[in-house]
Design a protein that fits this description.
The complex is a heterodimer.
Chain A lengths: L3 E9 L10 E10 L4 E5 L6 H9 L6 E6 L2 E2 L5 H4 L1 E4 L11 H11 L4 H14 L15 H13 L6 E5 L7 H18 L3 E5 L2 H7 L2 E6 L2 E6 L1 H6 L4 H6 L6 E4 L1 E3 L2 E4 L2 E4 L2 H9 L4 E5 L5 E3 L7 E10 L3 E8 L2 E8 L8 E5 L6 E4 L2 E2 L2
Parallel strand pairs in A: 3-8, 3-9, 6-7, 7-8
Antiparallel strand pairs in A: 1-2, 1-4, 4-5, 9-10, 11-15, 12-13, 13-14, 15-21, 16-20, 17-18, 17-20, 18-19, 21-22
Chain B lengths: L9 H26 L1 E5 L2 E4 L3 H7 L2 H31 L5 H11 L6 H12 L5 H8 L13 H29 L3 H9 L4 H12 L1 H16 L3 H6 L11 H11 L3 H29 L6
Antiparallel strand pairs in B: 1-2
Classes of the chains: A alpha+beta, B mainly alpha.
Chain lengths: ~350, ~290
């Protein structure tokens, strides 16, 4: 178990990278706490897997260093780093039984047979694999195979961290939930540092207590799921987390209010003051669930036209046109929404201002 | 469950039946026909039952040729399969080296078989051949190298030629099998701390099972049926030391024109090849049971 530090990691798959865009990873500098459950969340191709492979040692970064518990492991092989990794597709030794698969990492490290038997049965117990322990690994279903791959990481008692690379991709939807909970359980039980790569925000937010959002080779924000939801540091985070994502409206400041295409939205004094100091393109962001949609013009309501209402069961997603801009609001069931003109209120405490994509603080 | 009772369905199978009949059954039946008759000329035939079969099965020259054939095919498999795998493992995985090694490997496979025999005659001749002259000039051998004079040298030459000719096929098949293994397997092996040997034994070899089955079957059948190369190189000699089954068969059927015994021999020959191909296939399937190719 280890705390993992990344110092100025960059990586390029080209031999002589020149431009910024030649880099798959652009300067990553972060720390993952010991015993934490972390997720790397981002769209396909943002460099998540590259970063994971650098942490495990399968890839050597172009520059920068990886530290486990303050010790530089950059030059060590994955085996020496004592790390476990679970891949997108279950990787098994087909000719072996489940027992053989689980015992394999220990055998390679010269552990005695008695201890191997003990550890393997312990791990099989944790993963509910005891029933199939003498079956050939090749004949198992995808979710059991993935459990065996995970088990190969868990058998090593001193494993520094377990890395997951989109491990639930090939699992049936109804088993995904079960396996995800199992992972969480194992984490709580064994307190092993776990790093989980995924492009599925639900997977990331339910699994991890720290989520790092990656986009185009950069980590734009690390935080708790709540943090990412309430205080996105970057417009990408706001847009990527939550369904539907955060609303962003280009705006200008006018005293203590933001002006969006003629509509005036009042702001906190504090927010407005920060906004006045900021440089660059100014955007106002607010989560769809915080928008207050009313059928009558109240105080400071902004007039908008309803273009679509999607009923999602317990709530509705209302798509609005505010001037020339699209706005999405999440309206609880029971609140009537008129089908043409409504008045939208922007609660001051949930408005965030962004300059050139970054939140202003 | 209700089944359709409609015999017209047989018509759907008819085309396959006709094709198989013309491609295999009818030609084979003519051989069966000859194997049970003594033929003096057109229209002058006598039914002899199993006489030719008895004669051929008791023929000591056939026994010798059969033993030689088993020794030859056995050596072929023992040398070519491991050697092919080794070559495939040593081949580059990316870059310009891939094309070069693939083309170089494929070259022997592109040469007509009797030309291969001719190449090796010239190559190993003790008076002008590079190999023959070269090895004799080292003065290491008690008996000077000459594959037309010493059975052992004839065997060595035939084996060298065969290995040179066909190992590339095994290597190409094994290489294709190796390239099809996803990277994640190697990554997992590195993380699990597997030694190169363990990686080979638990990942590469099982994953190559499918292509290796094909390689073993092809090399078994081809080497058991070998004719052109040794015929050109040694003509079955010196003495009968490299007379393999097909060479002996041609002697009986075409040189002595004993069509009846020749036909009986052919059928026995065919059944042996079929039997062993079946055994190899079954064994290799059981070895990797429970695994998808």
């Amino acid at each position: 178990m280890a705390r993992i530090e990344l110092h100025d990691i960059t990586h390029s798959y080209l031999r002589r990278p020149k431009k910024d865009s030649d880099y798959a990873l652009k300067r990553i500098d972060d720390t993952w706490e010991d015993g934490g459950a972390c997720a790397l969340l981002g769209p396909s191709g943002c460099g998540k897997t590259t970063l994971l492979n650098i942490i495990s040692g399968l890839l050597k970064p172009t520059s920068g260093s990886v530290l486990y518990d303050g010790k530089d492991v950059s030059a060590l092989t994955p085996e020496r780093r004592n790390i476990a990794q679970v891949f997108q597709f279950p990787v098994l030794y087909d000719t072996m039984t489940v027992f053989g698969n689980l015992a394999f990492p220990l055998q390679n490290r010269g552990v005695s047979n008695d201890e191997i038997r003990l550890r393997v049965h312990e791990v099989a117990e944790i993963l509910d694999l005891t029933g199939v322990i003498n079956k050939r690994a090749a004949g198992l279903t995808a979710d059991l195979k993935q459990k065996v791959s995970l088990g190969r990481g868990l058998v090593r008692a001193d494993v520094a961290a377990i890395l997951f690379d989109e491990p639930l991709t090939v699992i049936d939807p109804h088993l995904k939930w079960h396996l995800r909970r199992k992972l969480k359980e194992i984490h709580e039980q064994l307190k092993i540092t776990m790093i989980y790569v995924t492009h599925d925000q639900i997977e990331a937010l339910t699994f991890a207590d720290q989520v790092a959002i990656m986009v185009e080779g950069e980590i734009v924000q690390i935080g708790t799921p709540q943090d990412l939801f309430e205080n996105p540091a970057h417009t990408f985070v706001g847009y990527f987390i939550g369904s539907p994502g955060m609303n962003f409206l280009e705006c200008t400041l006018e005293g203590n209010a933001a002006r969006v295409d003629g509509a005036v939205i009042p702001l906190d004094e504090e927010t407005a003051a920060l906004g006045r100091k900021a440089q660059g393109k100014l955007e106002l962001g607010i989560r769809p669930m915080y928008l207050d949609v009313r059928s009558e013009p109240g105080e400071a309501g902004v007039e908008a036209t309803v273009t679509m209402i999607e009923d999602q069961g317990s709530y509705r997603i209302v798509t609005l046109m505010l001037g020339g801009r699209i706005l999405r609001a999440k309206v609880p069931e029971g609140n009537p929404v008129s089908e043409d003109t409504v008045w939208v209120h922007f609660p001051k405490e949930w408005i965030r201002l962004f300059a050139d994509g970054r939140v202003i603080t | 469950m209700d089944k359709w009772q409609d015999n017209r369905a047989w018509f759907l199978v008819l085309p396959v039946f006709v094709i198989v009949a013309f491609s295999a059954l009818i030609p084979l039946m003519t051989v069966v026909n000859y194997s049970v008759q003594d033929i003096f000329g057109p229209g002058e035939t006598v039914f002899v039952g199993t006489e030719w079969f008895k004669q051929m099965l008791g023929d000591y020259r056939l026994h010798d040729a059969l033993l030689r054939q088993f020794l030859f095919s056995g050596l072929v498999l023992l040398i070519e399969i491991p050697l092919g795998i080794l070559i495939a493992l040593a081949m580059p995985k990316k870059g310009w080296g891939v094309s070069i090694s693939l083309v170089t490997l494929a070259l022997p496979l592109l040469i007509p078989w009797n030309v291969i025999g001719t190449i090796w005659i010239i190559f190993t001749r003790p008076d002008i051949g590079l190999f023959g002259v070269g090895i004799n000039s080292l003065n290491l051998l008690e008996v000077p190298f000459d594959h037309t004079a010493t059975p052992l040298y004839a065997w060595i030459t035939v084996m060298l030629m065969e290995v040179w000719h066909w190992t590339p096929l095994v290597a190409l098949l094994a290489y294709a099998g190796l390239r099809a293994i996803p990277d994640a397997y190697y990554q997992a092996a590195r993380i699990d701390g597997a030694s190169p040997w363990a990686t080979f034994w638990y990942i590469q070899l099982p994953k190559m099972r499918g292509v290796l089955t094909i390689a073993v079957l092809l090399r078994w059948m081809d080497s058991f049926l070998i004719y052109a190369e040794p015929f050109v190189l040694t003509g079955g000699g010196p003495g009968n030391s490299t007379t393999f089954l097909s060479i002996y068969l041609v002697k009986i059927a075409l040189l002595q024109f004993d069509l009846g015994p020749g036909a009986a021999f052919s059928l026995i020959y065919f059944l042996i090849v079929l039997l062993f191909s079946f055994i190899f296939y079954q064994v290799l399937q059981t070895v990797g049971k429970g695994e998808k190719g």
